[in-house]
């Protein structure tokens, strides 16, 4: 059924479509899109159809407003212009949206004449684009321009092949032997729940970055351009900043981009669609700029072997070039310090990729994903290298690779940092504001400067000098010192006492850090009750509890250095897991008011829905250790007015409460806040005020002024004797009230386990 009426001086068409969604197109777009309407939603791919029903109506309404502005100016209706580096400095790649058409568009470019800003049509080169799939109702156009000259101003414009053009946009090529570029990470437009606010933050970051580096050759984005992978409204906000039409941007596929919608938008050079491709979002690719080789991986791929193959094949194919610098980029940071830093996926990616990264000899690896900032030491074979020849603070001809994790470029969300500092982190910060990094490339110098956008101050700087004409002299070892991460070690494997690791540090004769090779170290202990393996202190089988002394010897060629002596205490320990992480929970997600009756042990929850943890939505929501959602629950049916509170209950048995000791903990991951009850008694609160009662209509942000703790982090809260006193013999009940941050929240997550020690 169709209806037409006049609005604001132009005709508007409303077409009824599957799922009740409505598609609005301007009059000029109706003819181009008519053939697409006749196809019908029933003939779309399932993924497109789902995306269409969920996102497309609002997205295309947004795009229509954007296109209609151009229409009033009589210009070609091109949006979502993706301007990217080409295969080398002499090329540029383009991709853009136009209303659905069978006629491919064009790119026209020309040198900017010094005496005018007008587009020089008489000197322009016209390149025909090709068409590919795009969002329903639109076509994507792709083109590559070539034979660009260095240090030259150009204008370009996009056309429909029938004489209609966009306005002209300017870019300037630079000297590829000495240049700079800007690195950003995780704009993730829409993650805050406010697309317009995220767009403002993103635009502000780019304005500041380009203001500081007006001669930047390009921008690198470490992934997660948008939050909802199908949302054209978020993509429109991502592409909105003017800078993206004047400075080419090499994008990376993040975990929020990993679908064919990403491939609709971006046209990258030297792409290998067979290696690294995940969910048809795109494969690994590479390009060069001067004497620098850039490789870009789609780290969403669950097959690190494909990335290894791509890096090795690219290195082999480009081996004829004498690269001065090699830079790698991918989304999932393998050396970060926040919520994702210890996830199984990230740790596996690190184990798989690092040997090849070392072998190929990359100088820097640029990453994102963890919405916080980390710069590592020079890294080689998973170890931080600190013993360098220095010019001030600048390492000269250092070994290894430096890894950067960029924080969010829009401020859409931030993750809390892990409490313990990682051995690889030279700098780790959560400033809570957007940041960007300016990277300067010279024949013998690579410099990194990171800035925050609120104060515009530089918050980190790092530089590498790589000059074969400089003879490298590394200072000798002066002394060694031994430390341990924990002085208490349990006789049995447990989760109360942390793993005890030895840290052996060296100091060179100039007072700087000295890198000690593990092969040069021998550890000595005063008892056979423990053994030391790979720097970890492990209890020996049937080892007697007691205090044990440890020291180390380091053989440095002709000399042997002996460390200080430390002491550890080996103690007996046993524990019981009362509730496993994947336990079954009953839940109520209908938005009703259960008052306090639902907390009682004998409350009848038999009519509630039941499922294994972790529980939540959407289905692919994931947390470290607990994994992806196993039981999909509801949110009330309205995406922009979700229910505030979901109820959860589960049972577990205690055989002998008298055997339970005075130590326990609850480990959980929750999005966004929880109050937990044991047999009707409250035992903990998380992301909620310490006092007060909160009901079924209370969102977290309405009752608390404090910022949310990172939603992706595993939390462990230890239970004291008072909390454990509520345990009883036989059947016990845990009840959790999980609150959303606000009515627009995009996800919910609940999973936990409970462990106690024995007497």
Q: How does the SSE layout of this entry go?
A:
Blueprint (H helix, E strand, L loop, with lengths): L1 E6 L2 E7 L5 E5 H13 L6 H27 L6 E7 L6 E8 L6 E6 L13 E4 L1 E3 L5 E8 L7 E7 L9 E4 L6 E6 L10 H18 L6 E3 L10 H8 L3 H4 L2 E3 L8 H6 L19 E5 L2 E5 L7 H14 L7 E8 L11 H17 L3 E5 L4 E4 L1 E3 L2 E3 L3 E3 L2 E3 L5 E4 L19 E5 L5 E8 L2 E8 L5 E8 L11 E8 L3 E3 L11 E7 L4 E2 L6 E5 L4 E4 L2 E4 L6 E11 L2 E4 L3 E6 L3 E5 L4 E5 L20 E4 L2 E3 L4 E2 L3 E2 L2 E2 L12 E10 L5 E12 L1 E6 L2 E6 L13 H4 L11 E5 L1 H4 L5 E10 L8 E11 L1
Parallel strand pairs: 12-13, 13-14, 16-17, 17-18, 18-24, 30-38, 42-45
Antiparallel strand pairs: 1-2, 2-3, 4-5, 5-9, 6-7, 6-10, 8-9, 10-11, 12-26, 15-16, 19-24, 19-25, 20-21, 22-23, 26-27, 27-28, 29-31, 31-32, 33-36, 34-35, 36-37, 36-38, 39-52, 40-41, 40-46, 42-52, 43-44, 46-51, 47-50, 47-52, 48-49, 48-51
Helix pairs in contact: 2-4, 3-4, 7-8
Structure description:
- The longest helix is centred in the first third of the chain and has 27 residues, at 46-72.
- The chain has ten helices and 52 strands.
- The chain has a seven-stranded mixed β-sheet, covered by helices on one side. A six-stranded mixed β-sheet has the order 14-13-12-26-27-28, with helices on one face. Strands 39, 42, 45, 47, 50 and 52 form a six-stranded mixed β-sheet that branches.
- It is an alpha+beta fold.
- The protein starts with a strand and ends with a strand.
- Helix 2 (46-72) packs across helix 4 (232-239) and helix 3 (195-212) packs parallel to helix 4.
């Amino acid at each position: 059924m169709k209806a037409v009426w006049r609005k604001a001086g132009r005709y508007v068409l409303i077409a009824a479509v599957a799922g009740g969604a409505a598609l609005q197109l301007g009059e000029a777009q109706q003819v181009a899109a008519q053939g697409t309407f006749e196809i019908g939603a029933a003939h779309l791919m399932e993924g497109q159809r789902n995306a269409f029903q969920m996102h497309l109506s609002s997205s295309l309404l947004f795009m229509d407003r954007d296109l209609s502005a151009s229409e009033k100016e009589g210009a070609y209706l091109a949006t979502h212009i993706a301007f990217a580096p080409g295969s080398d400095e002499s090329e540029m790649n383009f991709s853009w949206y136009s209303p659905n058409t069978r006629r491919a568009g064009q790119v026209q470019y020309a040198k900017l004449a010094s005496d005018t800003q007008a587009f020089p049509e008489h000197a322009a080169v016209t390149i025909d684009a090709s068409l590919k799939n795009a969002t329903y109702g639109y076509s994507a156009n792709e083109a590559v321009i070539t034979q660009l000259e260095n240090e030259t101003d150009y204008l370009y414009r996009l056309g429909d092949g029938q004489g209609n053009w966009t306005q002209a946009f300017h870019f300037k090529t630079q000297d590829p032997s000495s240049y700079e570029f800007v690195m950003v990470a995780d704009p993730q437009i829409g993650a805050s729940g406010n697309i317009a606010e995220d767009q403002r933050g993103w635009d502000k970051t780019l304005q500041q970055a380009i203001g500081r580096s007006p001669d930047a050759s390009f921008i690198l984005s470490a992934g997660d351009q948008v939050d909802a992978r199908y949302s054209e409204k978020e993509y429109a906000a991502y592409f909105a900043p003017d800078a993206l039409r004047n400075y080419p941007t090499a994008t990376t596929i993040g975990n929020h981009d990993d679908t064919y919608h990403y491939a609709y938008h971006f046209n990258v050079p030297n792409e290998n669609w067979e290696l690294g491709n995940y969910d048809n979002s795109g494969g690994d690719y590479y390009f060069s700029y001067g004497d620098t080789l850039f490789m870009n991986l789609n780290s969403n791929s669950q097959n690190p072997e494909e990335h290894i193959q791509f890096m090795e094949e690219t290195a082999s194919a480009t081996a004829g070039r004498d690269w001065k610098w090699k830079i790698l980029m991918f989304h999932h940071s393998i050396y970060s310090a926040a919520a994702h830093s210890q996830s199984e996926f990230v740790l596996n990616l690190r184990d798989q990729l690092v040997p090849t990264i070392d072998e190929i000899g990359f100088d820097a690896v640029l990453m994102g994903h963890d919405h916080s900032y980390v710069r590592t030491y020079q890294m080689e074979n998973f170890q931080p290298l600190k013993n360098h020849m220095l010019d001030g603070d600048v390492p000269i001809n250092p070994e290894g690779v430096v890894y950067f994790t960029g924080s969010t470029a829009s401020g859409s969300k931030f993750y809390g940092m892990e409490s313990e500092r990682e051995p690889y982190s030279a700098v780790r910060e959560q400033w809570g504001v957007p940041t960007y990094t300016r990277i300067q490339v010279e024949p013998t110098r690579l410099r990194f400067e990171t800035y925050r956008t609120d104060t515009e101050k530089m918050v980190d700087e790092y530089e590498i000098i790589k000059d074969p004409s400089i003879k490298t002299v590394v200072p000798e070892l002066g002394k060694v010192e031994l430390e341990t991460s924990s002085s208490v070690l349990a006789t049995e494997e447990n989760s109360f006492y942390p793993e005890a690791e030895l840290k052996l540090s060296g100091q060179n004769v100039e007072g700087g850090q000295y890198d000690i090779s593990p092969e040069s170290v021998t550890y000595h202990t005063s008892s056979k009750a423990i053994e030391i393996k790979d720097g970890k202190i492990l209890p020996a089988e049937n080892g007697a509890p007691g205090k044990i002394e440890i020291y180390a010897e380091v053989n440095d060629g002709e000399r042997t250095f002996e460390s200080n002596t430390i002491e550890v205490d080996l103690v007996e320990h046993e524990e019981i897991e009362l509730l496993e992480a994947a336990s079954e929970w009953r839940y109520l997600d209908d938005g009703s008011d259960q008052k306090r009756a639902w907390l009682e042990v004998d409350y009848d929850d038999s009519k509630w829905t039941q499922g294994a943890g972790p529980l939540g939505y959407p289905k692919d929501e994931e947390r470290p250790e607990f994994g992806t959602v196993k039981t999909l629950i509801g949110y009330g049916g309205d995406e922009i007015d979700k229910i505030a509170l979901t109820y959860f209950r589960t049972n577990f048995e205690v055989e002998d409460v008298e055997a339970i000791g005075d130590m326990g903990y609850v480990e959980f991951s929750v999005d966004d806040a929880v109050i937990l009850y044991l047999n009707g008694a409250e035992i903990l609160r998380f992301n909620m005020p310490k006092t007060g009662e909160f009901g079924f209509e209370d969102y977290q942000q309405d009752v608390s002024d404090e910022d949310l703790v990172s939603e992706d982090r595993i939390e462990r809260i230890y239970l004291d004797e008072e909390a454990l006193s509520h345990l009883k013999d036989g059947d016990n009940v845990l009840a959790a009230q999980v609150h959303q941050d606000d009515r627009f929240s995009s996800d919910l997550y609940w999973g936990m386990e409970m462990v106690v020690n024995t007497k």
